[in-house]
Design a protein that fits this description.
Elements lengths: L1 H8 L5 H7 L12 E6 L7 H13 L4 E6 L9 H19 L15 E5 L16 E8 L5 H13 L8 E8 L3 E8 L5 H16 L6 E6 H7 L7 E4 L5
Parallel strand pairs: 1-2
Antiparallel strand pairs: 3-5, 4-6, 4-7, 5-6, 7-8
C-alpha cells in the first residue's frame, strides 16, 4: 500500500517534498476563486490543516469561501449538509463561471411544477403522451422537511437509470399549499409486474421509504377523464418485510 501511494503522490516521509506540494506554501500562486468544504471530524483531511489554508487565503485577501460542517467527517453524509454544500457549489460555480443557480424546492413558489423527462420524440409531461401509462405518487407533508433530499435522490436515480427500465419516462414535483407531491411516470401498463417493480420496489429503495409509507397510483386514462394527476389515485402500502 505504501509503495502504491509513493508511486501515485510521492514519498510523504520527505519533508522537502511535502513542502513543495502543499498548497499552504503556494497561496500566492493561487489565482482562481476557492471553495473549501470541511468536516470537523474528518480523520484524513484534518480541520486544522484546512483552517491554515483558509487563513492564509483570507490574509492574502483572496476570494475564498470556507464552510465547516461540525457533524461531518470525511465526505458529507448527512442529507441536510449534502444538500447545503451542493447548493453552495452550484451558486459558487454560477458566480465564477457564469450560468444560473436554481432555488431549492423549499424556496419555490406554491403551485410550481418541475419535470425531468427523457429527451425523445413525443416524451412530455402530458397524460395524452402516454395514454396507456400512469404515475406513482408520493405525497409529502410540509413539516416533514424532506422534499429537497427526496427530489435530489430521485433526480440522480432517473439520470443513472436506477429504475432499470425504459418504461420510466420521467419524474415530476408539484408544490401545493398543504402538501407537496413527487411522481414517477411510466409509459405503459401492459405488464403489472413492471409497474409494481417501479413503485413498490425501486421507489421504496431509492427514497428509503418505510414499509408503512402510503403511495398512490393513477392511470393516465383516468387523469384524462377527471382532469387531475393526483385526485382519486389508488392508494398502496408497502408490504412489511418478514
Amino acid at each position: 500500500m505504501k509503495k502504491a501511494f509513493a508511486v501515485r503522490i510521492g514519498d510523504v516521509s520527505d519533508a522537502a517534498f511535502n513542502r513543495r506540494i502543499s498548497p499552504l506554501f503556494h497561496v500566492a500562486a493561487i489565482k482562481a476563486p476557492v471553495l473549501i468544504g470541511q468536516g470537523t471530524n474528518d480523520p484524513r483531511v484534518v480541520k486544522s490543516e484546512s483552517d491554515q489554508v483558509a487563513r492564509e487565503l483570507f490574509q492574502a485577501k483572496h476570494d475564498v469561501t470556507y464552510i465547516v460542517y461540525p457533524d461531518e467527517g470525511h465526505g458529507f453524509h448527512r442529507p441536510p449538509n449534502n444538500i447545503d454544500f451542493c447548493h453552495r457549489t452550484e451558486r459558487f460555480l454560477a458566480t465564477h463561471l457564469g450560468g444560473r443557480v436554481g432555488p431549492r424546492p423549499s424556496q419555490l413558489a406554491k403551485d410550481t411544477n418541475l419535470y425531468l423527462f427523457r429527451d425523445q420524440l413525443n416524451c412530455a409531461p402530458m397524460w395524452e403522451a402516454f395514454p396507456n401509462g400512469g404515475c406513482w405518487i408520493l405525497k409529502i407533508k410540509k413539516k416533514a422537511n424532506v422534499l429537497g433530499k427526496m427530489w435530489q435522490d430521485l433526480l440522480f436515480a432517473v439520470i443513472g437509470e436506477a429504475f432499470e427500465t425504459l418504461n420510466v419516462v420521467g419524474i415530476a414535483m408539484a408544490l401545493r399549499s398543504k402538501e407537496d407531491m413527487i411522481s414517477v411516470w411510466n409509459a405503459d401498463n401492459a405488464d403489472d409486474n413492471v409497474r409494481f417493480a417501479i413503485g413498490r420496489e425501486k421507489l421504496k429503495e431509492i427514497l428509503m421509504l418505510d414499509s408503512n409509507t402510503l403511495i398512490e397510483y393513477k392511470f393516465h386514462s383516468n387523469s384524462i377523464r377527471d382532469m387531475s394527476t393526483f385526485r382519486n389515485a389508488k392508494p398502496y402500502v408497502f408490504a412489511a418485510s418478514t
